[in-house]
Amino acid sequence: MDFLKILKSFEEFIYEAVTWLVFFPRTLWRVVRHPVRMAAYADRELGDPLNEQFKDGLSPPLFLLLAVLIAHAVEIGLHAQMPEERNRLAHMVFGSEQNLLIYRTITFGIWPLIASLYFLGRQGTSIDRETLRRPFYVQCYLAAPFAIVLSTGAALIRHAGTAIPAIGLAMMAVACAWYVAVQAQWLHFALALPWWRTFAA
Fold first, then answer.
1. Taking the model in full, what pTM does it have?
2. Which of 102, 124, 191, 193 has the fewest other C-beta atoms within 10 Å?
3. How far is Cα 58 from Cα 98, in angstroms, rounded to an integer?
């Protein structure tokens, strides 16, 4: 009986993992094309029962995690040089693929967290696990394309090719400009702030 449960769980995992091949690019395209609309979609989906949420896309934290994994895979494919391990902390982070992935996941997770805390602070809402969840999920959607392009650009800068570092620098600039513009647009929509204040934020 336990074996059948394990087999059933494995079947579900295989199906879920394979569907990522469909829903990741679809979700990525939708976020890049309509970021504020997808932010509203994430907020709306969290109001549905748990088994009904994000049926036509990926849940935002999973989407961000997969974005970090894809960016890491691109870096491996480019054979980008890792920064020099100048101290014990750098050795711990860059010394293994697992530690580097954990570090990057946490790093790109901090961006949604900071934006969520700012949003709740502007609203005057008390911060707890439930109030933080909605803006954090919204922000995970917005951070994922930023993570892919920024990480890929950084990998290109560390690549040995002559023209590639310039392309990487351009990609990082585009990623930052897109992220700032999207954040300003979201804050303008969600908090009804004037544009100058959203860009300042």
1. 0.84
2. 124
3. 23
